[in-house]
Every structure is written in C-alpha cells, then in structure tokens.
Amino acid sequence: MKRILIFSLAYYPHVGGAEVAIKEITDRIRDVEFHLVTLNFGDELAEERVGNVIVHRLGSSASYLSKILFIPRAARAARDLNTTLHFDMFWAMMSYMAWPIVLARLFHSVRAPYLLTLQDGDPFEHVFNRWFILPFYPLLAYGFRKATRISAISTYLGGWVRRMGYAGNVAIVPNGADLTQFVATTSQEIKTAEHIHLITSSRLVPKNALDDVIRALVMLPENVRFIIYGDGPEEEKLRSLSRSLNVGERVEFKGYVPHSELAESYADAHMFVRPSRTEGMGASFVEAMAAGLPIIATQEGGIADFLFDETRNPETATTGWAVDVNSPEQIALAVKDIMTNPEKVEIVRANALSMVREKYDWNLIAKHMKTLFDQVAQSQ
After folding, report:
1. Span 327-344, pLDDT tens digits
2. Contacts by 9-14 with C-beta closer than 8 Å and gap 24+?
3. Is pLDDT larger for residue 189 or for residue 56?
4. Residue 123 is assigned to a structural domain of this protein
C-alpha cells in the first residue's frame, strides 16, 4: 500500500475549500495510507484519524508566530515520520506548503517526490509579493521548480506556474461537489414567493464583495433578502453598511455552518450570489449549481472555467449570470432577470447541472488525483 504525506496549514475541524478537497479526495481513495501534518489551533488532538487521513497536529495556537513556526516544524515532522513510514510521495496543498518540503529536502535530506496543488484564492501579487514573503521567495520558487508535478484547481491558477519557474505540464483538476449531498430539487417558485432569498456561502472578506450585494438590495424590491452563511473579519463592516443603506432587516447573517449541513441551507433559496473580486476557483458556486440554484458571479480568476453568460460567452451553453467586478447595478439587473424569466432560468439550471455532473463530481476528481498520485510516486 502506498503512503502519502500531505502538508496543509489547516484541517478539520477548520474547514475551507482546500480542506474539503483533501477530505473528499482521500475518502474516495481507499488503497493509499494518507498522513497529514497541520497546525494545531490549540484545542485539537495532537494525532487522530479524520476519515481516511491520519492527522498529525503541530504547535499549540493559531497565532501568527505559530503559523510561521509551522513551516520548520512540518519539515522536521516529515523527516521523523518518513524515517519509520517511508512515504512514497508528499502532497503540498496550497502554494505556501512547498516551503516545508523544501526545508525537508535542504536541511533534513528528505527527498521524496512531491505534488504541489494550487488552491489559492487571492491574486498572484497578494500571495507572493507581500513584504514578509519576499525574503523567502527564492525558497518558494525553488519549491515550484523542483516539484515532480503541479496541479491547479483552475486554468487561472495553472497560469501561475510559469511565473514561478516550473517547466513541466500542469494538471488542471478542479474542486468539486458531492452530488449525493447537493441535490437539485424542484425550482423555487419566485413569482409566488413571499420573500426572494439570495444566498451566499463565503468568508466575510473584501475579495468576496458581499458589500456589492448589499448595495444591490437598494435597487431591488423590498421582498428580496440576502442570506449570508459564513464568518470573517468584515462582518461588522457589512452589518454597518446594511444599516446605513436602510436594508439591515433584509440582510441575515447566519454565521458559520458546517459544510456537511450547507446543502440543507440551499433548499429555501432562489439564487446564489457572490460577485468575487478575485477567486482561485470557488467550489461553493459548483455546489450551488449542483443544488439547482441559478448563479450570479463575476468571471474573475477560476470562475471563468465554469460560469458562462449568454451575452459574454455566446458560443457556450449558458450556466449562469456574469457581472463585472464592483458593479451592484449589474447584480440588481441579474436578479431581476432571474425573477422575471423562469423559462430561461430552467434552461440555465439544466445546463449548469449537466456540466457539474460531467466535470465536477468528486468521484471523477478523485480518480484524476489518484492517477496523479501514481505518476508522482512512480517517478522516484
């Protein structure tokens, strides 16, 4: 049986797109023994099994210093674990996780082949050009150049690797949706609904542009409400904005909901809206499509791989409504179009659902990743 060591700064119960991807993929690959090193945020077990992964947590808090120290600690853990387990390969989840692999190679003589997967949601400059990154940029670039294989969850992120010096082929393997959990039901009837629910699932951070959805409410009928699932540093700012625009009673902050329960939250919604200013991919969009919700979004970053607009992409079957960045007016127009054109909505929903089933089912994605794992492990 192959053994793979995964590097991820966070893992369950702390969940984002990358963490969901690891679990969904590893749960479907039963003939590999997966281990994972991650940061201990202070209240978890040092070692436990989560699904099909044996998790090794390092450190004792989520402080900034602990996150920095995680890199050399993870490198040492890789050395120690590899001494007894003899991993066939390493898997770095997110760009920064190339660092501990580089340190393990340079300082601990651990030279297992490795796969680097790009899952980043911020722009290239934000990820690689911050002041505290620049002194260590050469090590990160080295990690890209020496990777056995690199995969990316979108064409957009796949374009980064040349800028980092990687000369090999990039495998584009997106994040997906659990089609047994996110299930399309009968379309919510908008014309007879007492309240029309716009829903989003996202971190409350500037890049997700939830402020633009709140501004759009001013231009929409009183019965249109915005339901927000997620938490983050922008919550109070968004609450203040909704009050200042006199739409406070139409914006509901639901807070964090476990990913396993999120599908239930879509059942009473009429459309999914997240006009991201930047996005590596955005699995929440694909999950909402799988649940049968019409999507309003920008086409920034990786969103352009799956959201096709009838005007902007006339050569492709329409899968959603595209808007420009920072455009509440266009968001309002898209909402009104969905409200008043049920026949079009049904066609778009069907197109989106068909696409998700063909390209974004986790079962298919896990098979692609298993092929990559085999290629990397066999390269040594």
Report:
1. 999 999 999 999 999 999
2. 9/38, 9/39, 9/67, 9/70, 9/94, 9/96, 9/97, 10/38, 10/39, 10/41, 11/36, 11/38, 11/50, 11/53, 11/55, 12/50, 12/55, 13/44, 14/41
3. 56
4. yes
312: in domain: yes
CATH number, domain with residue 211: 3.40.50.2000
Q: pLDDT value at position 187?
A: 56
Range of the domain at 304: 196-359
Residue among 166, 130, 151 at smallest CA distance from 281: 151
53-58 and 47-50 beta bridge pairing:
antiparallel
Residues 148 and 10 in one domain: yes
| CA distance linking residue 218 with residue 215, whole number of Å | 6
In this predicted structure, what is the pLDDT of residue 348? 97
Q: Do 217 and 328 meet the contact criterion of CB atoms below 8 Å apart?
A: no
Tell me if 184 is assigned to some domain: no
pLDDT at 15 over 70: yes
What whole-number distance in Å separates Cα of residue 9 and Cα of residue 160?
A: 21
Question: Model-level pTM?
Answer: 0.93
State how far the Cα of 39 lies from the Cα of 60, in Å rounded to an integer.
8
Q: What is the pLDDT of residues 118-140, one digit of tens each?
A: 999 889 998 888 877 888 899 99
For residue range 165-183, list pLDDT tens digits in order.
Answer: 999 999 999 999 999 999 9
Distance CA 282, CA 288 (A): 11
Beta carbons within 8 Å of 168's beta carbon, 6+ residues apart: 147, 149, 150
